[in-house]
Amino acid sequence: MEFALNEEQQLFQRQTQQIIKSKGDLEIPRAYSEGKEEVLDDLWTGLAELGYMGITVSESYGGLGMGPLTLVPILEEMGRAVIPGPYIETVSFAAPLLEKYGSTEQKEKYLTELATGERKFSLALLEGNGEYAPSNINVRATEKGNEYVLSGEKILVAHADFVDTLIVPVRTGMSEQDISLLLVDRDSTTLQLEKQISMDETRKMVKVTFNDVAVPKSQLLGQENAGWELLEIGVRGLNAALCSNMVGGMERIVETATEYANTRVQFGQPIGRFQAVKHKIVEMKMNLETGRSLSYYAGWALENNTEDVVEAIAMARSLITEAFIKSANDNVQIHGGMGFTWEFDCHFFLKRAKTLENYLGSPEDYREEIVNALVSDKESVAVGR
């Protein structure tokens, strides 16, 4: 099994490096955090011109028709610069779901606009108690003629004020599993948006309130009451993408920590000569390479729909999430008091790592998912015998 990047993927990696560097590299998240949101518009336009928005969109809708593995080097480079915005939610979540479950009309409208960068997506999933479970979906969609009328609220919706369409899980029946997915366009509905405080200023969080919002039934993605299964499938792609993104952040942390350890002098010698600092950097490097291997395999399993795709992605998500947090925290410690200052870049990575810690589930949740998948596999083998 070959996990090295092929020539085409290496080309995407170099192009991504070039455009991010031309737009300012780590000055992008810094400017965005300071309220200069135009830097995200500028970057989005640049990526769209290169065709990056349509990577996972089929050629018939103006995309490149490539799979999750092609996204790996692109997402790693974005992670290296802590790039803001809903790129992952749009390209790794919305596009594959629309390709697989969208109606012909939905594909023609949304995939075509997505591929050109005209339409951005986010997932409006979380509600009240913060649990990622069908029982926690309480935004109700009541049928009224040819429409659904939505009432309730979603919290911590990433970049809801920047995107054009929200994919919203709603309750459409009495059973716990009676969840459906709706495509809610901001330009044709009136939504109440309220910005929420986020530890990571590069991931703007918004509370979205639905006050009897009418959505045409034609906006139903997939079958009614089958939305949770679709959501789980979509989240696999989202998690695989997040793993690649975090690996990119870990790689930048290793480089930053190593460079600082070789140049910062204390007691007459670089601090990198001290055993405590050496050990931290070595552990960072080991976690990086382990995480990268798991990330590549998760992407490969997703693209090839292998039997172990669920546990492959869950393993990567659990380990990489925790390793990213530890590496980011150790990097701050290596930089000492300077690591806590706004002028240094260490805090961007720590904030991103902590923000993603419980996004779509905690590391413990993913370990539980691994156990459930392994037990299910074992039961399937037993039945087969």
TrEMBL record:
Residues 227-372 form the Acyl-CoA dehydrogenase/oxidase C-terminal domain. This is Acyl-CoA dehydrogenase family protein. Its EC number is 1.-.-.-. Its cofactor is FAD. SUPFAM superfamilies: Acyl-CoA dehydrogenase C-terminal domain-like, Acyl-CoA dehydrogenase NM domain-like. Residues 6-118 form the Acyl-CoA dehydrogenase/oxidase N-terminal domain. The keyword Cytoplasm does not apply. It is an enzyme of class 1 (oxidoreductase). Belongs to the acyl-CoA dehydrogenase family. Keywords: FAD, Flavoprotein, Oxidoreductase. GO terms for molecular function: oxidoreductase activity.
